[in-house]
Each structure stands twice: as C-alpha cells, then as structure tokens.
Amino acid sequence: MASIALIEPRPPALHVFSFVALPRLGLPSIGTVLRNLGHQVQIHCQVLRKLPMAEILKADVVGISTTTSTAPEAYRIADLCRSRGVPVLIGGVHATFRPEEALEHADCCVMGEAEEMVGEAVERLLDQARSGAKPDGGLLLPEEDAGEGNICRVPDLDTLPMPDLSLIRGWRDRRLTPMVTSRGCPYDCSFCSVTPMFGRAYRFRSAGLVLDEIAHRQPRGIFFYDDNFTANPTRTRELLEGMIRLPRPPFWIGQVRSDVTQDPELIDLMQASRCARVFVGYESISPATLESYNKKQSVEQMLESVRILHEHKIQVHGMFVLGSDEDDVATIRGTARFALRNAIDTVQFLILTPLPGTRQFRFFEETKRIFTGDWSLYDGHHVVFDPNQMNASTLQREVWKAQKRFYSSWRSVKSFARLRFSEGLVSAYGRAVLSLSGFHDNKFIAALKRRDRSKSA
User: Fold this and answer.
1) Are 280 and 257 a contacting pair, CB within 8 Å?
2) H helix count then E strand count, the chain
3) Does the global pTM surpass 0.85?
C-alpha cells in the first residue's frame, strides 16, 4: 500500500466557471480506482484550496492532471516534487497530446483515460523507487512509444466505480454536485479536444447507475459535465423520468447542442425534471464559420433553441468561439448584438484557441500562424495565433469589448431592479471576469500591438 497525492492545478486566470468552484472528475475517478486497489489517496484541487506542499512531498507517488492552460503550473509542481525525490505520474488532455514534453517533468505519462492503466503505472513507479533505479527518459503508458494511436479509453463506463468526492481535500457538499454520465462525441468540431481525447463514439453509463449515484449523493443540484448530455435521447429520457420519480429531485444544469429543442418530448421532460440552465455551444452567428468549425448546425436552429428553452423556463448560457478565418470585426460585434437581442441569459465569448490534438492546432502549426508556446495563454482569453481578417491585437480588443457590452453595468442594475438576483449576480461576476481573466491585460495587448506593427513594417 502506498500513499498517493493527486493534484489538479489551478487555471492561470478567472473564467466563466470560476464562480462555482467545482473539481474536474478525472482525478476522483482515478483516485477511487487506486483506493480500491488498497492505496491511501488524497486529491488536492487548487481551485478549492492552497496546495499543502509539505504534506504532498511526503507521498510515495504524486499524480498530476493537465489541461493545456494548466500545464505550466503542473510542470512547476512536478519539477518541485521530483527535485525532492518523489516519483511523478502525469496525465490529462495536454500530456496526452504532448507526452514527450510532459516526460521532461515527470517519470511516467498515461495517455488518455487513465482508470485502466493507473494501477500499473503506480506499481511501476513504486518498483523503480524501491530498486533505486533512475528513470531513463521516463516511462510512457499504455505503450512505450508516443502517438495518438496509443490513447487509452475505457470501453464500458459501467465498470468504473462511483467517484469518491470525499477523497478531495477541502471538499464539502455544495449547491452543485458534479457528475459525468458519458464520454465521447461524434461531431468532431475542428477546435475541440473532446473527440481526440475521448473518441467519436458515445459511451454512456446506464441510467440505473446514474440514478443510484444521485440517490447516494442526494444533491441539491447537479452539474452534468457531459459534453452533450442529451446525445442519446432514449437514454436521456429514461434518466430524466427516473429523476422525476426521486423523493427529492435535484435541479440540474447540463451541456447540450441547439438541436435538443427539436425533440418536444425531451424538452418537456427537461423542464419537468427541474432543468435550470443549459450550456449551449452556439460558437458563431456566421454560417461560414459554423461550416469551418464542422459544427453541423444553423443560425436558425440557434434562434429557435433560445426561444423554446425560454418557453420551458430553462435559462440559456450561450458559448461562442470568435476568431476563425471567416470572422471579421463585424462578426464579433454582431455576435454581441445577437446575444442581447435574443435575450440569452449569460454568455461566454472565447477567443479561438488552437489546442494540441485538434485539427485547428495542426492547421495553424502547418501554416506557421501560432506565435507563442506559452501554454498558460491557451485559455480562451488570449490570442495566440495570427488571425486571417484582423490583427491579433484587434481580435483581443474586440472580444473584450463584446464581453463588456453584454455584461454591462446597466444590465446588472436592470436585473436587480426586476428582482432577478441570480441574473444580476452573474452579470456583475461577468464584469469582474473581464478585469481579471486576461482579456484586457494591458501588457499583453501592448505586446500584441508591437508584434502587429513589426509584421506590417
């Protein structure tokens, strides 16, 4: 039995989800697997509390999860642990697509979904530590050579244990409890890392097991992290019908596509099961941009979805990705007008970000348009590539202005005056994110302007 510390590093800046400090569920799932193998496991989530490094450095193995924007912080922690002789296991979406880079900071890299490999990875690190052998370039799992074909995926999600959230230091019951009921997505949007990481085939936990977890946790509210919670309408209907029959049905939030409203029975069930808000990836109001993203939806579908969701008393959080080769300044300004005119409740205006593993990254890399390798800037709040129809500094400024226009002070005041306190608080929070997220980082914008001038000189 070994003591294992698992770490989820904090993002580099505030973002739209920051006001609800929730952990990702990859480490709780992995940690539960390791606990069931007899190990002592603690999970440290940096968005919940400061890392107790003195305690972490006493662990037999440290495991660190990465996204692209958290990779620099993950590497900093990994380097510190290894300098004190603690073996480091690294994984997550960024390490999956940059394994050689990750192994410069860790002793072992697990690519893809780690639940079926993490036990072997830990044992190999422990054996190496017992023998006193020094890592010879690192260990790579599930195979000894890198490549996207080596990504591990769990074929049957029902075989996984219920994630034990009590393993997370500082965790306590909150108004929202995170849950995941599926993995994968067949839509393969060009900028999205979900399909490269989790595959194009949907895999679902059975409705019965999800209902058992809800009954066990008895949450006040649920945030379903699924990338498309309603992907399988038959299974979703079964789950929602079961939730309605619970003694104390929780309210819930989930991520859906705009086409969910084309199923009248499903949308009625969503309302009846206390769906409070949905996060919808609208991405763009430009048909050309939607086509370039491979989004497979129309602007007309987007308009209809907002109307129908509001008719069913479901709030809409619209997510837009700005800066494609088809976008110009008018597109960005028009997106803000679209969101306001159609009374979208909250929005997320993100800058197109070429994440490793995506087709967008490969295209920008091949065309030599990425101008920085500082992964902490790959958070959707910073321009890291040369746009097609405007300067980088213009894209940065226009996305900030669109966000500022939507989350205006007047909007907050009006919401509070109408006693819409939740909406008013979110609007006020949106303005706070503007000042702290990096959208309007004066030093960064100044650097972009200098670069733009040097390019045009």
Assistant:
1) yes
2) 18, 14
3) yes
